[in-house]
Amino acid sequence: MTFKPKLVKFDLYSDEELIKFCSLEVTETYSLDNLGHSIPNGLYDERMGPLKQGSTCLTCNQNYYQCPGHFGYIKTEEYIKPIVIDHVLFALQSKCFNCNKYKVMLSQENDDKFINSNDESEESEVKEINSKNFIINRNGNDDKFNNIDINALIESSNNLDYSALKTLRTILKIAKCPNCLVPHKPIHKVGNEIFSKSIKITIETIKSVLGANFNLCFSKIVLVTPNKFRPINYLGNKVYEDPMNNVYSKIIKERQPNLMHEVDLAIKQVIEKKEGIFRQNILGKRVNYSARSVISPDPNLATGEIGLPLIFAKKLSFPEKFTEFNFDRLFNAVINGNKYPGATHLTSDDVKIDLSFLDEHKRRGLAYQLKIGNKTVHRHVSNVDWLLVNRQPSLHKPSLMAHKVRVLGGEKTIRMHYANCNSYNADFDGDEINLHLVQDYLAFSEAKNILSTDMNYKSDTNNKPIRGLVQDHIVGATLLTMKDTFLTPQEFFYLTISHNVKSGTILPAIIRPCKLYSGKQCVSHLIHSIDTKVCLNNKSKVDEEEVVIMNSHLLSGVLDKNNLGPTSKSLVEIIGNKNNSYNTVLTLFSSLINKYLLKYGFTLRINDLFLNDCGEKVRKKEIYAANKEIENEFMPKQNTNICSDYSIKRIKKQNNNKKTNFTQKHFHLTNKLNYSEEAYHNSSYKIKNIMNQFTSKVLNHSLANTLIPFPYNNLSLIVLSGAKGSLVNVTQICCLLGQQELEGQRVSLMKNNLTLQILHQSKNTLKKENNFGEKEVEKGGFIFGRFLTGIKIHSFFFHCMAGREGLIDTAVKTARSGYLQRCLVKHLEGLMVCHNGYIYNNYNKIISFFSKKESGTPVGLIAAQSVGEPSTQMTLNTFHLAGVGNKNVTLGIPRLREILLVNKTNKKYFTLKQFDLKEIHSMLKDVLLRIKIKEKVKRKKLSDELVKEIIVRIKVSDHVKRVKEVLSDHFVIALNKILRKTHFGEKIIQNKISKEKEINLVENEEQNEEINEIISKESDSDTEKSENHELIKNDSLSNDNEDRNEESDVLIDNVIKKSVSSKCNVNSFMISSKKNIIKLSIILLEKKDVLLYPFIIEVIESMKLNDTEMNVIKDNNTITVEGCGINNLLTFMNDNLMKEVKDDYSMINLINLFITSYSNDIHSINDTLGLEASRNVIIKELKNVFDCYGISIDISHLELIGDYMCKTGIINAFSRNSFSNDDCMIQRMSFESTYAVLKNALMKTIHINGPSSKQMVGGLIKDECEIIYDLEN
C-alpha cells in the first residue's frame, strides 16, 4: 500500500534515548591532526559519517553519498533545552516561586483571604475564578479570555502546549500570588538562561517550581550534528572547519551549557528561509533524468515538439521493460550502447549494469540474454518519448508542459517553436529551459494526455488562448491573404504540396489571360486538408473588411493576429475545438507561412521609416502650434501661478524700465524664474494634457503620410497586423520620443530651479523668440526629437533616466510580486471543488458555495496563479491620476499589497451622488469666525497663591463637533509645544497627572459657569486683579482692518520677546459648547502675570481638523472626496439633509446615501457597512488594479479570494499571522517562521492535510492517486 500518513507528533527525547542512537561520546576538543586525519572521539570522528568522497562511514559502512550521518554527544552541566526555553519561561511566569502553584484562586476561602488583605491595587489585577472554574475578567476590558476552562488550560500547560502556556501567562500576569500572598518577582531570559533581575535562577530551583511534568525540558548532554552537516571547507592548501566546531569545542572545555543559544541559532539558520532544509531539501528537491540549456527558435518544428540535441538524447534514458513486442528494438539498443539509438544501462534482477564500460562483444552477449529473467533496458530518448518542459519562474500552469521529443543531430541548444513563447514567457536572448524525462508509463500517459501543449492552449487566468502564431508568421499570413496576392500554379502547388487534399478541389481564381491562384485559396486549401467544415465571421486588425469563411473557403478579409494569434474566437480556436487538436492547425499554418516567406522574403527597409514632405511639414507645424499653446496658456498666469514674489518684483521693475515684450517672455518662460515646486507640478498637469493631444495629432498625421504608404510600408504592417510592437514604437522612430516620466511625473526641479544644468539659457539663445514654449516643455522631460534623426544631449540624458528607472523597477518588482504570489499560493493551495460543487479547504470547511470548475479541480492554486502571474506585468511605483473626475489613487503592486495583505490604504477616497454636502475644511482657521479671550488673575483667601483663569470663546461656522474633539485632544499639548519654541525655557502649562482622565470634559455650559462662580467666590475681592483682553476676528471685517492687523502683529511680537521665568501648572481644563460657540476654561497656578493670549490664538489657528489632506472633486452627478473613507461620510453631510434623514422614519434617505456611495478603503467599509460590503470592495478593487493595465482576469478567481479573506467573519490577510488553528502546522512551517512554528507544534498531534503537508511527510498530494498506484500491487 502507498504511504498515507494522517497524523504526526513532535516530542522530546530523554537523555537515555539520545545516548542510544548516538554513535559516540565526543571528548576531544580538536578535530584533525597535523596530517588532516580525523582524531578519535573528536568532532570529525568518522563514526559520525565520512568526511570526503571515497571514504567510508565507520558506523554503517556506507559511502559518502549513501550514509545518512550519525550523531555524537557531549556531557555537560544540566541546562534548559533551547527549543523549550520559552515554554519554561511562560510556566515560571504563571507560577509562584514560594508555593510552586499556579497563581489561581480555586477556592472561595483563598479569594476571601486575598480580598481581606485590603490591597485594592492588587485586587483589581487578579482574575476571579467562579465555581465552574471558568475565567472571568473582573474589569471586563478583555473579552477574549472570558469563559475559558481553567482546569483544561492548566492541564494543557503541563503537557507543554505552547499556546496554552502563553495564554495562561497572559491571564495570570499579577504581582501577588492569590494562594500565599507572596509578591511575584519579575523574571526574564538571557540567551538560554533565566534571571530574576540580575540574579541567575538555578536549574534546581526551576525544576522544583515546575515539577515533574517539565523534566523533559532539561538535559545533561549536547548533541553533535553529523559530519555531513559540518563539512570541511578547502581553500587552496588550507583546511577550514565549520564554525559550529568552535562552539562545540568551548562546550567541551568549559562543560557549561551557556553557549547553547548559539547552537540554537545555528539550527534555526539551517531550517529557516529559502535555503533551509524545509524549502530547499524537502519541498524542493534535485532530480535526475533532467537537462538544462539555452533555447533557440526553430519554426520548422511542430508547435507541440521540442528539439533535443543529440548529446542530451544519449545521456537521458527511459527504463523500458523487455517484452516480446519490443525485443528487436531493445536488442539493438543494448548492442549499440553509447551509439545512438542505444542504451545507458541494463537492469537484470535488481542488478544495474553500466553499458558504457563494456565492449561490443560483452554487450552483444547481454543482448542475447534479454529473454532470461526480468530485464529492463534504459534506452536512449527517441522521437516517441515525451519531455516535461519548464522555464523558471513557474508562475502558472502553462510554465510546465509536455512536448513530444524531436532528436536533432548536430545541435547544441534546445530548439522550440515560437508559438510556445507566451506560455513560458520566454524569448531567445539567452533564456534557459529545463527538461525532465518521465520514468514510467503512468507518468508517460499523464504527460501525453494531461500536460501536453494541446491541453494548455487556454490560460486559466481569463479562459483565453495563450498559444498562437506570433511575429513573422503573422506578417506572412497578412501578406499571403491580401487582395493583390496572386500565385502561379507552380507557386500555389509549391505552397500546398504537403496538404492532403484531392486534386481539383481548389480551382484557379483567374483563368485568363493566365491561370492565377489567390493567396486566400492557399488558406482554403489548408482548411480543406484538415477535413473540418468551418464557417467564421471575424474582425481583422489590418483591414476594415471582415474575415469571412464559408464552407471552409476564405472569401474575404486578411488573416492577422485576430485570427491566427493567441486571441479568442480565432480561426485556430474554432478549428481546434472541432478537431480536438490545436497543434495540428498551428503547425499547418506555420509550415505554409514558412514556405511563403522563404520564397518571397520580408524585411524592414530604411525608406519604411521616413515621412513624406507633407508629413514633415505637418510635424513641424504641430510642434510650433503646441509651443505657442504652451506660451499662451502660461503667459498671462505666470505672475500668480508659477513665479515667486521675488520674480514678480523683478518683472515689475523690468516693466518700469520699459523693457520689450520679448524680455518679459524671457523672465516668464525661461529657467531663470524662481519656480515653486507646487506651482511647477500644477503646471505640469496642464502641459502634459496639451502635449498628449499634440502627440496624438502628430502620430495620426504621420501614419497617413509615410514615404511608402500602408500596406506596403513594412513597419506599419508589422505594427498594425499585431505581429510585433505598437504605435509607440512607430512614434519614437518616425515622429518624436514624447514625455519621459519619472515615477509618473515630469522631471523634477533642482535647487537652482533647473532640471539639468545644461538647460541654463545664455543671452545668445534668446535671439529666437519661438523657442520659449519649447524650452519650457523640454525642461520637464519632453523630447521633440526622434530616433530616425537623433535627439539632443539633454534629451538623451532624460531618456536614460527613464530607462534606468524601468530597469530598477523591473528588478525590485520581481521579488515583491514573487513574494505576493507565494503568500497567495500557501493560503489557497488546499482549496478544491468537491462533488457537490462547493469549494472546501484542507480541513473540510466551506469557503464558497459555487464554482464553474469540475470536481477535483484545485481552484485555490489556479486563483493564486491567475493573480500572481499577471502582477509581474505591473509597475512597482505608485502612479497618480490627475484632472477633473479622476481620483488620486495607488496602483500596481503597492495597491495589491494594500488589498491582499490588508495594509493601510494610503490614498483613500469615497464617492457618492450629488448631495448637499458641507464645505470640507482641513484647518480650524477656515471655519473660525471669532475668538474672544479673557484672562483673570485672582488671589485665594486661605493662601497667597495666585489663581489665573483664562476663558476662550470660539465661534465657528461649521464642524462644531469636530472642532471640539480636536481642541479637547490637542490644545494643551500644542500650546506647550509652541511655548517651548519661544525660548521660555519651561512649559507654561503642564498637565496634572491623576488617576482620572487628564482632560475633564464638561459637556454642559451651565456646569462650566457654576465652576467659574465658585472660583470667583473663593477669590479675595480686595486683592483681585483682572486683565481683560479681547481679540475679535470677524470675516466681514478682515478685509477692511489692515491697520488693526498690523497693530496686532506688533503686539504679538512684543509679547514673544518678553522673557518669562515663572512656571505655571494647570489645575483644570474644561471645554463646553452651545450651538456654534465653544468655550475653553483654563485655571492656572501662577507666580506672576504672563500674557498667553497671543500663543492661544496661534495654536487655535494652526490646528488641523483632519489628519489627511482632503480634496473634493465634483463631476456631473458624482462627488469624490479624497483623503478619507466612507466612515467620514456623515461628517460632511449638510445639517438640513441630516434633519431630513432623522425626520424620515423609513430612513430611506440614509439608505440611498450609502447604496449610492463607494470607497476604496476596505477597513472603513468593513467598520461602516459590514463584511459582505467589504468583500465586494475587495473584488472590485482587485479588478480595478488589473483593468488599469489592460489585464483581464476571470471574476471567479477574484471572488474566491474575497471569500477566503472573509471566511472567518473578519478580514484576513494573506500573511503568516492569519493562519487559523485548523491549518496544518507543517504547512505553516513551509511558509515562514519555521522554527517558531516548530516550537508551537511541540507535543501536539498534527493532522496532515494540504498539499505541502503531505508532500513534506512523503505522502500523496491527492488521495485519488493511490487507487492508480495500487494497481501495480
From TrEMBL:
Keywords: DNA-directed RNA polymerase, Magnesium, Metal-binding, Nucleotidyltransferase, Nucleus, Transcription, Transferase, Zinc
Top-level taxon of the source organism: Eukaryota
Record's keyword annotation contains Nucleotidyltransferase: yes
EC number: 2.7.7.6
Record PANTHER family: DNA-DIRECTED RNA POLYMERASE (PTHR19376), DNA-DIRECTED RNA POLYMERASE I SUBUNIT RPA1 (PTHR19376:SF11)
Annotated spans, Disordered: 1012-1045
InterPro entries in the record: DNA-dir_RNA_pol1_lsu_N, DNA-dir_RpoC_beta_prime, RNA_pol_asu, RNA_pol_N, RNA_pol_Rpb1_1, RNA_pol_Rpb1_3, RNA_pol_Rpb1_3_sf, RNA_pol_Rpb1_4
GO biological process, one term: DNA-templated transcription
KW Cell division (keyword) present: no
Catalytic activities: RNA(n) + a ribonucleoside 5'-triphosphate = RNA(n+1) + diphosphate
Ranges annotated as biased composition (Basic and acidic residues): 1015-1033
Listed Pfam families: RNA_pol_Rpb1_1 (PF04997), RNA_pol_Rpb1_2 (PF00623), RNA_pol_Rpb1_3 (PF04983), RNA_pol_Rpb1_4 (PF05000), RNA_pol_Rpb1_5 (PF04998)
GO molecular function ontology, one term from the record: DNA-directed RNA polymerase activity
Function: DNA-dependent RNA polymerase catalyzes the transcription of DNA into RNA using the four ribonucleoside triphosphates as substrates.
GO cellular component: RNA polymerase I complex
Domain RNA polymerase N-terminal as annotated: residue spans: 215-481
Organism: Anncaliia algerae PRA339
Family as reported in the entry's similarity comment: Belongs to the RNA polymerase beta' chain family.
Name by which UniProt lists this protein: DNA-directed RNA polymerase subunit
Subcellular location: Nucleus
Enzyme class name: transferase
